[in-house]
Amino acid sequence: MNELDALVDSARASFAQAATPADLENAKAQYLGKAGRITELMKGMAALSVDEKKTRGAAINQAKQAIEAALNARRQALADAELEAQLKAEALDVSLPGRQRGQGGLHPVSLTMERIEQIFGSMGFEVAQGPEIETDWFNFTALNTPEDHPARSMHDTFYVEGGYLLRTHTSPMQIRHAVQHVKKYQARLDAGQGMSEIRVIAPGRTYRVDSDATHSPMFHQCEGLWIGENVSFKDLKVVFTDFCRSFFESEDLVLRFRPSFFPFTEPSAEIDIQFQTGPLAGRWLEVAGSGQVHPQVVRNMGLDPERFIGFAFGMGPDRLTMLRYGVNDLRLFFDGDIRFLSQFQ
Question: Is the pLDDT of residue 82 over 80?
Fold first, then answer.
């Protein structure tokens, strides 16, 4: 065995003994580094003749290639061993049963909102939507609640720059929808002709400075409006009675219209319901406010109150949800507790 063959065998033995990539790099330096054995052999060729250099150089290059091949083979072996160890450490037991991901669903208040829209939609009511950041005009003044009106104290809300506020009810959408409706039929009105009735509900989020077991700073409301030339308080009683009985799926549900005051309706009434069976049987529960639209509000819509008349109502979908599902704390709807919410899926 000549010198170069012995050198290749020595390199292979050193590489085989390297247990880590770092050890392998140290072994490589002994043979292929700047001060390694191959480099020294190449430097020793300076004193040889031209013919000897060709022969000697070819032999050294062949030995160098054999050492590099052994080095690469050991690198791959170490990498394969590391990968195998990692796979063993991270092995999965595929015989274990899988973890089933729960199926999502609508929030209980969203279910109620959809139910409200469906029921009133069957009665011919449109759904109106609008901004949650309102102007003073639409939220208060247009609804017959000027700046010095004491009713404003019941609507303490959040104000933002520029004279805007977070709406305290969805009644502003009644005004917005009515104004757009009137603009659409203005030519017919100017000509003394008839106009299609305004029949709309306005569900959405509202805001007031209030927080306890039955109140939240953010809550939901659904306002309703029906304006026409022949709409009476009797229509209000029929419509809302049908709605409540459909919503609670109870034909023996009893309603009571109790006199009250709202600046945007006159006369006004609170609406109470009474269940005849179940845990709430016999108790009167307030669910909505209502009344005949005040003439000034009709005028602010751009209509003649001597000719057009109608009713409005406002209810809290959150409270309806609590009654429908037997929930006793409003805050549960906003805590995000999956254990609570999953009951409604």
Answer: yes
